[in-house]
């Protein structure tokens, strides 16, 4: 494991828990960039910053967690979730600073029970290519071989990377941007000018060759960088400054910037033939993730599998998960559901999570209890079955679940598995025979319709049945 | 349908006609094709003829009191429907108020991707979301501004002065020393120039506390 050069004692020390605890991750950035926004210091962070460690029962009883000193039994033994995070191995007060890590450990466990496959961000406004419309039907896994790459190879697949050398300009503050320009970009000016000169020489050579080919002449000698005059180069720079598309493509390739959304007012077809990063990258719109796009939270490649029920056989829909309505709908903000400890937007569309005023569909389906206002009558709050379809990692490192409405049949089966309903029938089934007397009934119906019409006339409500 | 009366009673009712005005006729004559309400002699004759003719069929055709009965039930039903609607509205209003009261105790605005554990739902934790957390970052660095150029930005100056016009200490502004010095210099200058008051906040900033109805 550790090299042969290390002494046995040193090797033991290196593999010990005390030395193998990794450095904590940085504090998650504030999403809405308002400095000094509302937050709590003790809240559960969107991602764990410290490693969560546990210890077997026999060792825990002795307070042995593999660290420098024994842990207090009073706090570490009185819990059903023996996970701790070490904030500091040794402090000046000669204690080990630790806290419970049950929150993230259990969230991870619940997330893996959901069996969600992580996918690259879904880009809804990408509809120009006929090839991409087919792939919109399902989510693309982050572990696809053409997407899951980090190294810059200078080839075709570069634009699908998730990791870039340069920053993502959209997330930078003004001050950070100015500093980036001064510290990182300005020293590279000479290098970029040399690159532009080379590109100009290549462009001139190509156009000369093309003209020669059209006129049937011999190709002229290749234009070298040293042949280009200063005036020629200045003209080229001026032309380039007005051609924002080309310049943007060149600059972002040179600095290896994370892709930004396409500039406004640029025609798609015109944009597509340029050698730029933006059009093909799945992270162009949403921004690149800070970690691997799976965030290490799930290693499933697909959710295209069938679940098998021991009695009913293979299931068309996956087992739904019970979601808690965390916050009701407030104005245009959709209601928030909590699935396995992860907050997600309620599924959109015409379903029980979206009240629709004045539509006939909502009358049939009804709205779930806690959606329009907080449900204070149900014990433990309103809950509903949903199906987690996929999840993505957003630029601040959050795992954003996408939920779907659960199939009613799958809901019944899930409820039965918890013993809330009885639908399984073991005995013989009876066929249903409709009762006879159809002729008499139709007469009764016509009589009743007539009576109704009379009553309408008298009550002056005839207009409401006149409608077709 | 109400239970059918004995056949004799039905016949007696059908023959007798108390009134010849059209609505009553219409009421009595429910089982036939109802003619349009016209008070003409022709219509009365026609009606009598019809009732005689129908005497035999009366048993199958139903009860003439049915229409009135139906009307009563419908009136009752409509009344109960409106009552139920009103009750539902009241219930909804009560729920809304109840919900708003509870949500005031839950100031955290959840965003998609947040992770929660049981203690995040506790009242102690929720109270922490009520007030703004103190600023930690250096605003001048984050915004990339030059403080000395900001001397006409009174809302910015107000951020770094007390209500009595004193410069806030760097522990309150969370600026790094360089930026704190620049900001302090700018405030001293603008107060020295007489553009910003030295003993109170700028009048434009405190106008609302003196003339609240101006909004």
TrEMBL record, chain A:
Task: Provide the Gene Ontology terms for cellular component.
Answer: mitochondrial small ribosomal subunit
Which is one Pfam family of this protein?
Mit_ribos_Mrp51
- Which stretch is the leader sequence? none
Q: Where is this region: Disordered?
A: 423-468
Per the record, where are the segments of Basic and acidic residues compositional bias?
444-456
Which terms in the Gene Ontology molecular function aspect does this entry carry? structural constituent of ribosome
A single Gene Ontology biological process assigned to it is: mitochondrial translational initiation
Compositionally biased intervals (Polar residues): 432-443
Protein known as: Mitochondrial ribosomal protein subunit domain-containing protein
Task: Tell me what organism the protein belongs to.
Answer: Hypocrea jecorina (strain ATCC 56765 / BCRC 32924 / NRRL 11460 / Rut C-30) (Trichoderma reesei)
Automatic annotation (TrEMBL), chain B:
Q: Name one Pfam family in it.
A: Ribosomal_S18
Q: Which domain of life is it from?
A: Eukaryota
Q: Which SUPFAM superfamilies match?
A: Ribosomal protein S18 (SSF46911)
> What's one GO-annotated cellular component?
ribonucleoprotein complex
List the InterPro entries hit by this protein, alphabetically: Ribosomal_bS18, Ribosomal_bS18_sf
Q: GO molecular-function annotation terms?
A: structural constituent of ribosome
Positions the record marks as coiled coil are 76-103
> What keywords does the record list, in alphabetical order?
Coiled coil, Ribonucleoprotein, Ribosomal protein
Q: Which GO terms describe its biological process?
A: translation
Q: What is the name of this protein?
A: Small ribosomal subunit protein bS18m
Origin species, per record, is: Hypocrea jecorina (strain QM6a)
């Amino acid at each position: 494991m550790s090299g042969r050069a290390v002494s046995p004692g040193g090797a033991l020390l290196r593999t010990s828990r005390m030395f193998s605890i990794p450095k904590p991750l940085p504090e998650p950035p504030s999403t809405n960039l308002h400095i000094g926004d509302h937050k709590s210091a003790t809240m559960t962070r969107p991602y764990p910053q410290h490693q969560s460690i546990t210890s077997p029962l026999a060792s825990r009883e002795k307070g042995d967690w593999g660290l420098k000193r024994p842990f207090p039994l009073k706090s570490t033994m009185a819990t059903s979730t023996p996970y701790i995070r070490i904030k500091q191995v040794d402090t000046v007060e000669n204690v080990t600073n630790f806290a419970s890590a049950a929150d993230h450990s259990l969230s991870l466990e619940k997330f893996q029970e959901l069996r969600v496959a992580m996918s690259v961000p879904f880009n809804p406004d990408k509809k120009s290519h006929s090839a991409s419309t087919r792939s919109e039907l399902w989510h693309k896994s982050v572990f696809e071989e053409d997407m899951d790459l980090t190294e810059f190879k200078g080839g075709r697949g570069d634009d699908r990377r998730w990791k870039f050398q340069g920053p993502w300009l959209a997330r930078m503050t003004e001050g950070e941007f100015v500093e980036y320009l001064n510290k990182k970009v300005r020293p590279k000016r000479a290098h970029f000018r040399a690159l532009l000169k080379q590109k100009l020489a290549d462009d001139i050579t190509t156009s000369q060759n093309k003209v020669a080919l059209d006129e049937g002449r011999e190709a002229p000698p290749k234009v070298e960088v040293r042949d280009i005059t200063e005036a020629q180069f200045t003209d080229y720079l001026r032309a380039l400054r007005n051609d924002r598309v080309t310049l943007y493509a060149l600059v972002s390739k040179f600095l290896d910037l994370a892709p930004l959304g396409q500039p406004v007012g640029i025609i798609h077809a015109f944009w597509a033939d340029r050698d730029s990063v933006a059009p093909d990258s799945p992270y162009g719109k949403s921004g690149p993730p800070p970690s691997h796009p799976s965030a290490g939270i799930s290693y499933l490649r697909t959710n295209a599998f069938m679940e098998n029920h021991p009695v009913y056989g293979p299931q068309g829909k996956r087992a739904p998960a019970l979601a808690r309505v965390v916050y009701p709908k407030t104005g245009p903000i959709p209601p928030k559901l909590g699935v396995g400890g992860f907050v997600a937007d309620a599924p959109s569309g015409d379903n029980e999570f979206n009240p629709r005023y004045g539509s006939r569909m909502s009358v049939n389906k009804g709205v779930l209890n806690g959606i329009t206002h907080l449900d204070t009558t149900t014990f433990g709050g309103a809950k509903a079955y949903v199906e987690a379809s996929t999840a993505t990692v957003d630029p601040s490192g959050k795992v954003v679940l996408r939920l779907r409405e659960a199939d009613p049949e799958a809901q019944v089966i899930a409820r039965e598995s918890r013993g809330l309903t009885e639908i399984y029938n073991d005995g013989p089934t009876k066929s249903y025979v409709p009762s006879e007397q159809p002729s008499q009934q139709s007469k009764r119906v016509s009589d009743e319709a007539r009576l109704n019409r009379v009553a309408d006339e008298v009550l002056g409500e005839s207009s409401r049945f006149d409608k077709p | 349908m109400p239970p059918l009366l004995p056949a004799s009673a039905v016949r007696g009712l059908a023959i007798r006609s108390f009134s010849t005005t059209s609505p009553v006729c219409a009421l009595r004559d429910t089982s036939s094709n109802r003619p349009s309400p016209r008070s003409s002699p022709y219509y009365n004759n026609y009606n009598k003829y019809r009732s005689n003719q129908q005497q035999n069929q009366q048993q199958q055709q139903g009860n003439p009191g049915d229409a009135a009965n139906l009307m009563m039930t419908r009136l009752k039903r409509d009344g109960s429907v409106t009552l139920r609607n009103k009750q539902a509205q009241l219930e909804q209003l009560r729920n809304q108020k109840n919900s708003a009261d509870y949500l005031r105790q839950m100031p955290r605005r959840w965003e998609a991707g947040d992770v929660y554990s049981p203690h995040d739902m506790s009242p102690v934790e929720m109270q922490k979301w009520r007030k703004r957390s103190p600023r930690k970052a250096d605003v001048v660095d984050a915004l990339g501004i030059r403080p000395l150029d900001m001397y006409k930005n009174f809302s910015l100056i107000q951020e770094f002065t007390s209500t009595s016009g004193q410069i806030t200490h760097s522990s309150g502004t969370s600026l790094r020393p360089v930026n704190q010095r620049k900001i302090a210099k700018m405030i001293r200058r603008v107060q020295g120039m007489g553009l910003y008051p030295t003993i109170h906040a700028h009048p434009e900033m405190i106008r609302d506390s003196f003339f609240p109805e101006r909004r």
